[in-house]
Structure formats: C-alpha cells, structure tokens
Write a structure and sequence with these properties.
The complex is a heterodimer of chains A (229) and B (81). Chain A contains nine helices and twelve strands. Chain A has 229 residues and is α+β, with helices and mostly antiparallel strands. Chain A folds into two domains: 8-155, Jelly Rolls; 159-227, Winged helix-like DNA-binding domain superfamily/Winged helix DNA-binding domain (Arc Repressor Mutant, subunit A, Orthogonal Bundle), CATH 1.10.10. Chain A has a five-stranded antiparallel beta sheet. Chain A starts with 7 loop residues before the first strand and ends with a helix. Chain B is built from two helices and five strands. The chains are: A alpha+beta (229), B alpha+beta (81).
C-alpha cells in the first residue's frame, strides 16, 4: 500500500462517470459503480515518486487516471529493466490481487500521476458479484502477458540497436513523452553508454537527428527495418 | 501583456534529481561553462544561458542524478509510414 505520508490520498471524490472511463469498469451497472466509487481512494504522485516497491506487500490495484507510470524490475547491481508503461485507463499491480503475493514490479511516476486505488478485498468482492469483471480482468492480464513475452523475445533474440529502433518508433508514434539516456537504456535492457552509442550511430546513418532536447526520426521505413534485425 | 514563449524556443536544461544528488560536486568540476553549482548540498543549474547541453555532467554523475531530457518525434517532412 502507498505510504500516506508520501502520497496525497483522497477518499470518496470519484464520480460514476469517472469510473466508467476506466475500461475494466465500463460494463458495470450504475449501482455497482456507485458502490465502487465509495471504496476507491484517489492518490496523487509527483514525477519520480515511487508508488510501489518490488517484493513488498501492496494489496491493492492501481488504476491510472492521469499521467504515466513506469513498471520496472531492479537487478542486485542497481540496473533497472523497464517492464511496461501504464497510462490513463490502464492498471497495474494486479498480480498480488490474484495470488496474494508480493508486488512483482516497482512502480514509479514519470509525470504528475493520479491513480485510483482499490483494495484487494474490495476488488475480489466486486468480482464475486460480477463474474464478467473477472473475464475482463483475464483478458487484460492476457494482454499484459503477451507484452511480457514480446519483451523476453526482444531481450533474448534482438540486438540493442534493434530494440532501440523499436522504442524510438513506438515513442514517436505515441506522442512526445520526455526521456533521458538513462531511461532509454532501462527501456532497452542495456546501460546508458551502450544506448547512447547506438543512438549516435543511428544519427551518423541519418536514421535520426539529435538536437538539444529532441531526437527526430528522419527515416521511419529504414528504422523499422533496423527494428527487425 | 507578457508574451508566452513558444515551446520550441524554451531552453531545455539538464534535470537534477534532488533525491539522488549527494552534492559531491563532480558536475561542477567538469562543467565547461560553469552552468552548475552546488547549493545547500545539491547540484543546481545556476546559469541556464551558459549550459551548452554537453553530456559531461550526465555521463560522470556517480549517482545517476543528472539527465538530459529529450522528446522523440517523427520528422515533419518525413514521408515514411
């Protein structure tokens, strides 16, 4: 559970319409949504603030309302591997809800983030009353598992250069999210120096252009070929 | 009336994570333009105009507290799809 000393938590300020905007809740009837609205807490986080620490108990599910949350795993030597990014409408920390274990990933706010927090017992009670919710959750979890399989495939079989190309294409397509070289390394499963070198090589090949505060993709088609190397 | 600066004209500066910075001063020693200083035990950009966005502070910060932020975009005139 987030430490209330570190995150600003509000209760009972959610409306039914706010909850309906979350895909998992979209099919619930008005009475259930009203009941759920009374049980959720609204949490606000500053950029860089930790929301959950891996291998710690956090028996609640978090729905992102605003901002971007980074889910990662840390190696004993301090290196981090980003597992996924969660944006508005998406949720994280579902695994401990269903297996009762510790959180498998660290969650950190990458911008000003607002989350809805629903305690494990409340979500399980909701699922018992509404089996359709379980099916929707299973469908979402299957999607997350597919993304993890893709990540394992990338890390095992593709080069840093290919992973970097894929990330650049995805980030450019998704809007102008802010990043640093460290973040780039953690998203591509390498260290900053290697990610930086790969980026500079791409600039020399005129695949991208490096400007102060901007990486501009110059040749989308060629970069897509690199992503498949 | 004060005109708001256009987004593209705002100078991008290195970001310093106050939680990670331990005020060791390596960035101050390395900065070729004296744009950074340690104040109250933490590195801060004290001369934004002087910062030339070189990679030295980011590369050599032992705490990984300094990052040079960038956005990733497609080139406006790029025709690929």
């Amino acid at each position: 559970m987030p430490d209330p000393r570190r995150s600003k938590i509000e209760s009972g300020a959610m409306t039914i319409e706010d909850l309906r905007a979350i895909p998992l809740f979209a099919s619930l009837d008005e009475t259930t949504l009203a009941d759920t609205a009374r049980r959720v807490h609204i949490c606000h986080y500053r950029p860089g603030q930790h929301i959950i620490h891996e291998d710690q108990p956090a028996h609640a599910i978090f729905f992102v309302v605003r901002g971007r949350v980074r889910l990662s795993r840390t190696a004993p030597d301090g290196r981090e591997q980003v597992l996924a990014m969660a944006g508005p409408g998406e949720y994280f920390n579902a695994v401990p809800i269903f297996d009762g274990g510790l959180s498998p990933a660290t969650a950190r706010a990458m911008s000003h983030v607002t989350c809805l927090l629903l305690a494990r017992d409340d979500l399980l009670a909701l699922i018992r009353k509404h089996p359709d919710l379980a099916l929707a959750a299973l469908s979402d979890l299957a999607g997350q598992l597919r993304e993890l399989v893709t990540l394992v495939e990338d890390l095992a079989f593709r080069s840093v250069r290919a992973r970097l190309a894929r990330l650049l294409l995805a980030e450019a397509a998704g809007g102008a999210a802010e990043m640093t070289h460290q973040e780039l390394a953690e998203r591509t499963g390498t260290v900053r120096e290697i990610a930086g070198r790969a980026l500079r090589q791409m600039a020399e090949e005129r695949l991208v252009k490096l400007e102060r505060g901007r990486v501009i993709v110059l040749d989308r088609a060629r970069l897509a070929k690199v992503a498949e190397e | 009336m004060i005109a708001q600066p256009h987004a593209s004209t705002v100078t991008v500066l290195p970001e310093i994570d106050r939680n990670r910075c331990n005020g060791c001063g390596i960035c101050v020693a390395l900065c070729p333009t004296h744009a950074v200083a340690v104040r109250d035990g933490c590195a801060v950009i004290v001369d934004a105009d002087a910062c030339n966005f070189c990679p030295l502070c980011e590369t050599y910060c032992p705490q990984g507290a300094i990052g040079r932020p960038f956005t990733i975009t497609f080139c406006a005139t790029e025709g690929g799809g």
